[in-house]
């Protein structure tokens, strides 16, 4: 007999570490998703391009896509579900993206609750600020980038505009765009 109980839903707060004021997203995701699917959701919600390596660090263990080139063995994130590795509210773990820039995201399980029928998940319910541009050089590179972009006389101002353009808004965040993109990865 199939299980008729509603799916379990996780409310996660994903915060990019090291940047003030913080850049963050609050997401609703099924507890049954794999860590690999969570990786895709975070990439989409933060507006990263998924062009670099990543890993989850949960209770001292590394989860990612195993490779013979790994320095240390990792558990295969495609084989672990969120509800297996984060069993309770207030659980915290890390998601690291781009080992060169070392973007660390703290993930906090804020709530675990039944899913509402008729709503398609994953869903972003709140967020603040734009994610830094790819390959900007991590937290310190991003701070330099913001300084250069705000000062037309800065020595790197023109090269950053040539590289990224002049339309980056560090305070910008459009939840509707994020949710349309999240619906495509379902």
What is the typical, i.e. mean, pLDDT? Answer: 93
Helix coverage percent of residues?
25-40%
**How far apart lie the N and C ends?**
26 Å
Please trace the helix and strand order, writing H or E for each element.
EEHEEEHEEEHHH
Structure class: alpha+beta
Q: State the major sheet.
A: 8 strands, mixed
So, the CATH homologous superfamily of the largest domain?
MM3350-like
CATH class of the largest domain: Alpha Beta
Radius of gyration, in angstroms, nearest whole number: 18 Å
Number of self-contained structural domains: 2
Strand order of the largest sheet: 5-4-3-6-7-1-2-8
Shape: globular
Architecture per CATH nomenclature, i.e. the level-2 architecture of the largest domain: Roll
- Find the count of extended strands (DSSP E, 2+ residues): 8
CATH topology of the largest domain: Structural Genomics Hypothetical 15.5 Kd Protein In mrcA-pckA Intergenic Region, Chain A
Number of helices: 5
**What proportion strand?**
25-35%
Detail the poorly predicted runs.
1-5
């Amino acid at each position: 007999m199939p299980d008729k109980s509603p799916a379990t839903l996780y409310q996660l707060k994903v915060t990019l570490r090291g940047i003030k004021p913080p850049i963050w997203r609050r997401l609703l995701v099924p507890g049954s998703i794999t860590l690999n699917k969570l990786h895709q959701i975070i990439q989409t919600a933060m507006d990263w391009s998924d062009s670099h390596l990543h890993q989850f660090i949960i209770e001292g263990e590394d989860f990612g896509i195993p490779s013979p080139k790994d320095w240390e063995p990792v558990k295969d994130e495609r084989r672990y579900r969120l509800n297996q590795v984060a069993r309770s509210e207030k659980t915290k773990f890390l998601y690291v993206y781009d080992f060169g820039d070392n973007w660390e995201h703290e993930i906090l399980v804020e709530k675990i609750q039944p899913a509402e029928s008729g709503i398609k998940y994953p869903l972003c319910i709140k967020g603040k600020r734009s994610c830094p541009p790819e390959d900007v050089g991590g937290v310190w590179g991003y701070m330099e980038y913001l300084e250069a972009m705000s000062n037309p006389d800065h020595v790197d101002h023109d090269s950053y505009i040539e590289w990224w353009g002049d339309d980056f808004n560090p305070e910008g965040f459009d939840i509707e765009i994020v949710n349309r993109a999240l619906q495509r990865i379902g």
